[in-house]
Give the backbone structure.
Amino acid sequence: MAENTTNYQCPACTGPLRFDSASGKLCCDYCGSTYDVAQVEALYGEKQAQADKAAEAAEKAASSGPVWGEMETGNLSSRICTSCGAELVCGPETAATTPTAPSTTPPTTPSTSEPSTTEASENGGDSGGE
């Protein structure tokens, strides 16, 4: 009995590959492609190496310190939404319709939301028109 089983996906269509004992190859029943076992294992090894390299780069970038410099955070404040717990990073031009608890830590990641989006999220999606 086999000690471990590996399920491979077809590189052409991502369908499951099955081993054909007559030809000694991996076959895809969906697109008809056939591959040598060594060929598919090499492809999976390359993908794993690329994933490891990307994970290492992401870890290095995350550990390199704050995303924003002191000049950029000078006018920003960080608030915590009392409804959902999300951190809101706001500039002096941002207004809130409900009070939020001020955060004691400076913001560490850039915010992609615009002031109108922040106001809408604090109102539960209500645009304010009644």
